[in-house]
Each structure stands twice: as C-alpha cells, then as structure tokens.
Amino acid sequence: MISIIVITYNRSGLLAKTVRSILAQTYRKFELIVVNDGSTDDTVEILESIGDVRINHVNEGKIGNLSKLRNIGIKKASFEYIAFCDDDDLWVENKLEVQLKYTKDHKFICSNAAVIDENDKVIKENYFDLIKENFIIDKKYLLQDGNSILTSSLLVEKKILTENNILFDEIFITNYCEDYELFLRLSEHSGFLFINENLVLKRLHSSVSGGYENNLIMLNSSVSILKSYVGKESKQTDKYAIEGILGFKQLMVTVSFKLSRSRGFRELKNYLIYLSDPSVLNVFLKRKLIRKIAKTIGLRN
Questions:
Q1: Based on the domain organization, do 140 and 224 belong to the same domain?
Q2: Which of 20, 72, 216, 262 has its CA 20 to 30 A from that of 36?
Q3: Do 267 and 127 fall into the same domain?
Q4: Which residues fall within 8 angstroms of residue 120, CB to CB, at 6 or more apart?
C-alpha cells in the first residue's frame, strides 16, 4: 500500500483537481495525506466536500517551510511506499499501477511528464524531451547533469527514508532545490529508475513562483548543493560535482543576460573566476568540453 503526500497553501481550485486525479487512480490501496500550510482560502471546505475516507487532512498552522511540511507527511505515512505530488500537478490514472510493476527490482521510481497550462491544456509533450528511454539515474548523473527527477512522479520505498533518517533538509535547503538535495543523499543507497512515460501532468501557470530572478535563486541553490560535495568523498566525485557546477553557472550567465547586460557580464565574470581555478579548468577541458563535442558529433545521447 502507498502513502501519498501533497503539501498545499491557498490553491484550493488547483488542489481539488490534483486530489481528484489521485483518487481516480486504477490502483486503489492508498492513503492521501494533505499537509495544509495554514491556508486561508476554502481548502478545508474543498477537501471536506470531496469526502473520501482515504484523505487525511493535516493542518498545523502556517509553517512556510516546504521541507518541514513534506517531512510531516513522511512521519505520518502508514504504508510501505511513499509518493509525492505537488498541489497543482495531476497524475494520469494508471500512474501508480505502472510504477508498482517495477518495485520488485527498484527502490526509487520516477517518470517523465507532459506539461499543461492552468486550463489543463498540454503545452509541451515531454517535460524531459531529451530523454528517450528508461534508464537509471545514479549519483554520478545527479552530480554531472543536475536533477531529472520530478517530485510529483516519485515513488520511494518508505523504509529507506525512515530506517536511515533520510528526510528533507529543514535548515539549510528549505524552499529551493530541497528535492534535489534529498535525491543526492538517496542516490547513495540506490539509483532511481526513470520510466520514460508521461505518468504526470506538470502544470505551468501564473501562480507558480517563476521568472528569471527565481530561476537564478534555484540555480544558485543547486551550485551550493554541489559545492558541498567537492572535497567530501573522492577525486572522482569532485570531478562530477565540478562538472555539474559548471553547467549550472553557464545557465546562470544565460539567465542573467536575459535580465540585463550588466547582470549578464557580472555573472560571466564570476563564471570566469571560477573557471580560472586550475582544478576546475582541468575538469572543463577534460570532461565538460569533451562531452559537449561528443554530443555534438553524435557520440553521446
């Protein structure tokens, strides 16, 4: 059986769609834990009107910490597996059924997604459009290439979290890339099976925290997470993490130029300063540049 965790704040209209998509699953043996961050809209009334006994509504007042809210849900989970869904995303009706087929061989399972707008219209066929097949996302991949795991698609074996006390970081990584930081720690126990099927509908809409400024905060958070792996384990891990940092910093330059030329040049200067470190330059020349050339000429997908 599965415990499904949804955290929410003042999104009653979208939340209702999310909850109904979960309750419509072809696999029926689950509990739905809705962790309410002290919503002031009609969230409570919406959940009561749905009236499904599988819904466990938890409201401990305004917390404002995404990591802590998800951890509350994990601690209240009763069943063998835990799944997460954002309060504005939707699941296709056989999402859980498909994933459960793989649980004999995999402890962590995620998937691709279609992208929808606020009216549920598909605006992009595949969220990860460069991924073409099922594969295992391991620690090396997460360090080198960043996060390709959508929280709303994730199904995890609960005991990995509880027996190893692996929870979302409530202190340092709270509201930006807290999932990426957790996935890196989980990858030390097992890889993530990525199913290249759209089992989730990932929503993009006006109330999502977005814009270039927000993108920069998220990119900077990702850099900070990867920097914590440099000098921590092995020279090989250092190389993977540095390669990932270079990728995020390149994106920061691109995004900064979209804000203004001055921001762009300032971020470019920071990138070049980082690149001037001999160990970083060595990774750039031997790994980042070679991988880019190989991909360009078709030797690497």
A1: no
A2: 216
A3: no
A4: 17, 90, 201
The whole domain housing 20 covers 2-203
Sign for the CA dihedral angle at 82, 248, 299, 281 comes to: negative
Residue identified by tokens 């050339």 is 293
* H or E stretch covering 83: strand 81-84
d(CA 103, CA 107): 6
Q: Do the bridges between strand 30-36 and strand 2-8 make them parallel or antiparallel, or are there none, so unpaired?
A: parallel
3 state SS of 11: coil
Q: What is the pLDDT of residues 128-156, one digit of tens each?
A: 999 999 999 999 999 999 999 999 999 99
Alpha helices in 192-299 (DSSP H): 211-227, 235-259, 261-275, 278-283, 289-296
Mean pLDDT of 191-203: 97
Q: Are 4 and 56 in contact (CB under 8 A)?
A: no
